[in-house]
Design goal:
This protein is α/β, with parallel strands linked by helices and 439 residues long. The protein has 2 domains: 261 residues, Aspartate Aminotransferase, domain 2; 115 residues, Alpha-Beta Complex (Aspartate Aminotransferase, domain 1), CATH 3.90.1150.10. Helix content is 37%, strand content 17%. The chain has a 7-stranded mixed sheet, with helices on both faces. The protein has a 4-stranded mixed sheet with strand order 1-2-3-13. A 4-stranded antiparallel sheet has the order 11-12-15-14. The protein is globular and about 60 Å long.
């Protein structure tokens, strides 16, 4: 079918409203309509859409000295200071690299894991275990890690998939706690089946779209990885930097990964910057060969690092990690619990400033791109931005990630607009899917 699209982005023939401006936790389109941003942009605009003056000062002043210097030739003070800052925030780690996207940071973690396995063990440790269906980015390696059907197995033969941990949609058709954490013990069975001496690392995202996660799950995974000499890699691009509590997300369960990819909050939507951090043991293993293929054109970009430092200053000066995340967790849970009380069959989970809502809904012919766009348009018509995580024949799953600056007014508006949206969604999918939620 011919299309007039001039920008390649996910779905063709998408006709979104044109954004004109934003402030606080709202966007405004060219028609003057206002939208509540319930997902912090793409979970990255943690300070909202009003740029703090100290961050703006950095943007104005930085280029007066120099704007770019490749780390192949130079160190720069901003990158050094940001490395020091991150390693102080996450003292379990000893070195970091900077990247332009979350997928780049994950790819760096994969390369590091394979290099360490070769150095510590043997070239036979070439397999990396991921969790089936997990999202790690849109590079070939990141897609293959999650078992995406868009990447052929023969193109990336060293990725092996494990079933997700998901207490709402258990892949083993079990229920916690009688399941005895089958999702964790499945890792050990897979390692034994593949051969422990062939496995380099296990890679996981801390939660499945916001939980719930049994308290024993990650400690069990850590123990298995340690016992078999396998690196534990945590993809915290979305959930790290306080999104679900601690700066290192797995610390919520008192677990320290060997490698962590992080960063959506680091640039706060003002500039792209992500980081991969490694422990001292991993760094020393990487250093044995004298090199690590971890550098990109914009790695350690001086402006990106300066902005990230200003963002960290702003977050810490407002004491957001200490106070805001717990408050957001409580208020978001109240909103979603209220929705579930009025929407029979709905399920919710909240971890830190991240929420998951599953609503029963009959999707025409199982969903598809056009239905996805119709659901998105319905939310926009209610002045609401939220993430459509998954559409199945009998339910739709949504993700929410308020900015760290979300206040009481934000959650009052969220409750109202979310109620409007779910009522409209029931009308969209027909009488058989009436959701029973009123504004």
């Amino acid at each position: 079918m011919p299309t007039s699209d001039k920008i390649l982005y996910y779905l063709f023939n998408r006709r979104n409203p044109r954004v004109e401006r934003a402030d606080g936790y709202h966007y405004y389109d060219a028609e003057g309509n206002r939208y509540l941003d319930a997902t912090s942009g793409a979970y990255n605009c943690v300070l909202g859409h009003t740029m703090p003056e100290p961050v703006a000062d950095v943007l104005r002043a930085r280029t007066q000295a120099f704007s770019f210097a490749s780390m192949a030739y130079f160190q720069n003070g901003a990158a050094d200071r940001l490395a020091d800052r991150l390693l102080a925030l996450m003292p379990e780690f000893a070195a970091t690299g900077f990247y332009q996207s979350g997928a780049d940071a994950v790819e760096a973690a994969l390369r590091a894991a394979l290099q360490v396995a070769r150095t510590r063990h043997s070239p036979s440790r070439t397999k990396i275990i991921g969790r089936r269906g997990a999202y790690h980015g849109l590079t070939m390696g990141a897609l293959a890690l999650g078992g995406s059907g868009s990447v052929r197995a023969q193109d990336v033969p060293n990725f092996v998939q494990l079933e997700q941990q998901d207490c709402f949609k258990c892949p083993f058709d079990l229920a916690y706690p009688s399941c005895e954490l089958m999702c964790a013990s499945a890792l050990e069975r897979l390692i034994e089946a593949e051969g422990p001496d062939t496995i380099a690392a296990f890679v996981g995202v801390p939660t499945t779209n916001g939980g719930p996660v049994p308290d024993e799950y990650w400690p069990r995974i850590r123990e298995i990885c340690t016992r078999y000499g396998i690196l534990l890699v945590s993809d915290e691009v979305l959930e790290g930097m306080w999104r679900i509590g601690p700066a290192v997300a797995l610390n919520r369960w008192s677990v320290v990964p060997d490698i962590v990819a992080t960063g959506k909050a680091l640039g706060a939507g003002f500039i792209p910057i992500f980081a991969t951090l490694v422990t001292a043991d991993v760094r020393d293993s990487l250093a044995e060969s004298g090199r690590f293929w971890g550098g990109h054109t914009y790695s350690g970009h001086v402006l990106s690092c300066e902005i990230a430092l200003a963002v960290l200053d702003e977050i810490e000066s407002r004491l957001l990690p200490a106070r805001a995340i717990a408050s957001i967790e409580s208020r978001l849970a109240e909103v979603l619990e209220s929705i579930c009380e009025r929407c029979p069959g709905a399920k919710m989970s909240v971890i830190g400033a991240m929420g998951r809502l599953i609503v029963p809904c009959t999707s025409p012919e199982g969903g598809g791109d056009q239905f996805y766009l119709a659901v998105q348009r319905t939310a926009l018509s209610c002045g609401l931005l939220l993430w459509i995580e998954d559409i199945q024949e009998d339910h739709i799953e949504f993700g929410l990630g308020p900015p760290y600056t979300a206040d009481r007014e934000f959650f009052s508006e969220l409750a109202r607009r979310l109620g409007m949206f779910l009522t409209a969604l029931g009308q969209l999918t027909g009488p058989s899917a009436e959701l029973g939620v009123t504004a």
